[in-house]
Amino acid sequence: MDEGTHTQPVGPVFVDTTLRDGGQSPGVFFDRPTKMAVVTTLSRIGVREIEVGSPCLGEGEIEDLKVLLSLPVPAELFPWLRPVEEDFEAALRLGFRRVHLSFPTSDLHMAVVRGMGREETLERARRAVRRMVGEGCRVSVGLEDASRAEMEFLKDLVMAVREAGGIRVRYCDTVGRHHPLEIYERISVLASCGLPVEIHCHNDLGLATANTVSAFHAGATYLSTTVTGVGERAGNAVMEEVAFALAFSGKGLETGIDFPGLAHISRWLYAAIGRTLSPYRPVVGSRIFHHSSGIHVDGVIKEPANYELFPPELVGLKRKIVVTHQTGRSGIRNVLERMGYRPPPEILDRLVPIIRAEGWKLKGIVPAQTILNHFMAIIESGQGSSPVRQGS
């Protein structure tokens, strides 16, 4: 792998943590068949690394890890480990040769979570990395609560990991406190320390996707995300949002991810964890390609790219023109044409205010049948020329 020689990959590398961090979301439980489906599907759509769980959760988790590690998938699977011998031995017995170790980095976490100071943390990180590297493992190290740690200490820790043989560090915005400009500045500093950087953002302020994209442009080419953003508290950076943001904004990067497949697993996972998918959810929501506003409808009919960043087929959806109190001639004409009619301009002139009035009365969508009824009423009243049927 590229990071074995401390060189950066050409494009973004998605590191999925749905089964580990996503599984920590209260009320979420992944049984073994679901875990197997997640691993095989993510591998198929192009995710290169998957954090599959932690042996510290007990025998049930260990048995699941054993099964997952036996799957014939191209993605590299690895566990999350505490820096303790018990976890090291469990991972080695299972046969993992790629592991992730987590260390606190803020003064608060070092003191309260681990009861350690800075020097002890540095020394324990060196020993732990050397221990697992000596067993033939490729080791990454998580910088827990890095967003509240002092930069000089983070730099010291990165250098310690590098000297001990680690392959990369994971910068964790554990409580989701960063904003994009701040995280860009901090990642730029760490990325200059000679070791690849992975970014892991939480969504407490709704900025996890933006922060992940910003961190990527600052040099963090490994992107820790979860499908649908499932994770602790408000969740993690959303894989589908990050992937589409990189592909369709700025320079338009090649992500290596199969987008229709990603949209499919996103919708499937919502059902699997018993959550409701908002129809207006970015990227995968069922109504994000519905148009009703007059100007937008006219623009989309003439050229979809006017108001659509990417085609609906890319995420398994279809474009739909919806008529409301805001819809104009183009939208109403579109509905009638889909029913087989070509309305003359003078009839449309009379029909538009009638349909808009219906929209105000209904306070929502005007059914296609209602539009057709009003259209035919105008024709039958003799107030307009006869409608032309499509194909006539």
Helix content: 40-55%
> At the third CATH level, what is the topology name of the largest domain?
TIM Barrel
How many separate domains?
2
Categorize the overall geometry.
elongated
Q: Please identify the top-level CATH class of the largest domain.
A: Alpha Beta
Would you spell out the secondary-structure blueprint of this structure?
Elements (H helix, E strand, L loop, with lengths): L12 E4 L15 H13 L4 E5 L5 H11 L6 E6 L3 H10 L3 E7 L2 H8 L3 H17 L3 E7 L6 H14 L3 E6 L6 H12 L5 E5 L6 H11 L3 E4 L13 H10 L10 H14 L17 E2 L2 H9 L17 E2 L7 H10 L2 E2 L2 H18 L5 H13 L7 E2 L3
Parallel strand pairs: 1-2, 1-8, 2-3, 3-4, 4-5, 5-6, 6-7, 7-8, 9-10
Antiparallel strand pairs: 11-12
Helix pairs in contact: 1-10, 5-6, 7-8, 8-9, 9-10, 11-12, 13-14
Task: Write up what this structure looks like.
Helix 8 crosses helix 9. It contains 14 helices and twelve strands. With 392 residues, the protein is α/β, with parallel strands linked by helices. Strand 2, helix 2 and strand 3 form a beta-alpha-beta unit. The longest helix has 18 residues. The strands form three sheets. An eight-stranded parallel beta barrel has the order 1-2-3-4-5-6-7-8, surrounded by eight helices. A two-stranded parallel sheet has the order 9-10. A two-stranded antiparallel sheet has the order 11-12. The protein has two domains: 271 residues, TIM Barrel (Alpha-Beta Barrel), CATH 3.20.20.70; 100 residues, no CATH class. It is 43% helix and 13% strand.
